[in-house]
Amino acid sequence: MLWPLIALFATVSATLVIGWVVDQTLQRVAVRHPEAPVWALLRRCRIPLQLTVVSALLLAADPLGRIFHQRGGGIHHLLLLFLLASLGWLTVRVVAAVLEAVLSRYEAVIDDPSRVQRMRTQIGMLRRVAGAVVVVVTIAVMLLTFSAMRTIGASLLASAGIIGIVAGIAAQSTLGNFFAGLQIAFGDTVRIGDTVVVDGQQGTVEEITLSYLVVRLWDYRRLIVPVSYFVNKPFENWTRRDPGLLAAVLLHLDHSTRVDDLRAALRTRLAENPLWDGVEWALQVTDTTPSTIVVRATMTARTPEDAAQLRFDIREQLIAHLRDEHPHALPRLRTTEG
């Protein structure tokens, strides 16, 4: 009875030592090679690594079986299941660390925000797909350790065709969203951080999964949209190629408005506003009615958020300018005295 306890204590001690040594080694390598973030990220794998090591050592030495007098019985099977689960967890952590390191390295060398957003979207999708595959494989291998599962394996294979057809029909929507998510990730139609308009609502793509997208609206509400929507229906993506945007302000003014003076006022206000990127601006009379003219002021900004705020500022400032300097330019209701 003493030797099994000693073996159990030695196993736990060896596990702690191995985990500490691996962690310290990764820390030193990360300090020596700061340009490779993968070493620092791999330190997150310490717990699943220790669980894998301790379960493997317990299976090899089998001190628990000697203590409980059940060598090769239920305890051995539980340890095997624990080892498989730990290996699956370790694999998920390693894959996530490697993919995150690739993304960090890419962000460090690429200055184009649109390419970085595309890479971030693809890496996130790959991480979810890889995690799902590892979980499915791990569960399948764990089930195969039961003798009953191996016995009925032949009958399961014989009926796999029928079950696959039924499952495909039942999960048609889910599979459609899955493949639509892959198409979005690698087709570069929408990325995390893009400004989109969905059913007339403008927002920023905050999260992309295999089944849905989360769009953060201007009032901080979250719009949950199935990924199949972005494959089957048209939508606006304001930042797919260029994050900049042209903002427009429409004003209905009196026919006596001095358009040249208003154009000069717009130029002055834009020069004083830090949200204007200095690329483009214009003020034009786009339409006329029996009582008013329609004046459109356009200006560019670096991002959709800046464009929206710039539009609000310029509208307020132009109306204030007309009120103070040219009150006759504001629309009036004309009446005829008879």
Structural class: alpha+beta
Low-pLDDT runs: none
* Structural domain count: 3
Tally of alpha and pi helices: 13
Q: Give a short account of the largest sheet.
A: 5 strands, antiparallel
Provide the succession of SSEs. Answer: HHHHHHHHHHEEEEHEEHEEH
**Rg, Å, rounded:** 32 Å
Helical coverage, percent range? 55-70%
Return the average pLDDT rounded to an integer: 78
Spatial separation of the terminal alpha carbons: 119 Å
User: What characteristic shape results from the CA principal axes?
Assistant: elongated
Strand content of the residues, in percent? 15-25%
> Can you list the strand order of the major beta sheet?
4-3-2-1-5
The count of strands amounts to: 8
Characterization of this structure:
The protein is an alpha+beta fold and 338 residues long. It has three domains: 2-170; 175-237, SH3 type barrels; 245-329, Alpha-Beta Plaits (2-Layer Sandwich), CATH 3.30.70.100. The protein has helices at residues 2-32, 38-41, 46-61, 63-68, 74-109, 113-144, 147-151, 153-158, 160-170, 172-187, 229-232, 259-272, 304-325, and strands at residues 195-198, 201-208, 212-217, 222-226, 236-237, 245-253, 276-288, 293-301. A hairpin with a 4-residue loop joins strand 7 and strand 8 (293-301). Helix 3 packs antiparallel against helix 5, helix 6 runs antiparallel to helix 10 and helix 12 (259-272) packs across helix 13. It starts with a helix and ends in a 13-residue tail after the last helix.
